[in-house]
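Write out this protein's structure.
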Amino acid sequence: MSIAEIMKTLEEKMDHSIDAFKNNLTKVRTGRANPALLDTVHVDYYGAMMPLSQVANLSLIDSRTIGIQPWEKGMGPKIEKAIRESDLGLNPASMGDLIRVPMPAMTEERRKELTKVVRNEGEGAKVAIRNIRRDANEGVKKLVKDKLASEDDQKRSEADIQKVTDKHITEVDRLVVSKEQDIMAV
């Protein structure tokens, strides 16, 4: 493995960490409705646990209400039960075939709690990025030890690795601040 390959995999892995972090942030509830919030809900579908998105159509009715249209008639009560039993704190109500999931207004205390969750997720993403940096630095040191690269190459690549790491950590910080502003907006 060359230094160029190490840098390429470093960049890819860090980008994956950022994507995973963004995905985790979509699950943190702001005051607005977002169908991605229900991604973690699984419904009993003929004995198999299926993601909600695979047994119903999810849509936004308005900014504070998610609409769920089951694909089969008998699935409504099962979907309602699955949402109620999830740890999302949501209370669905059915109106004929359509299930409405209103987003409850968030209290100040709940908003502060969620900002802590977001900061925690951000810290986890930063740790993942730093671990990737460590692995890349070890890879470069191994190349130097095996006489496949010079010590000057090592110093240069470590500086480059640090620049890439700093760029990704700054992106995580930016995402955390943006999500916190979203949550605290009334």
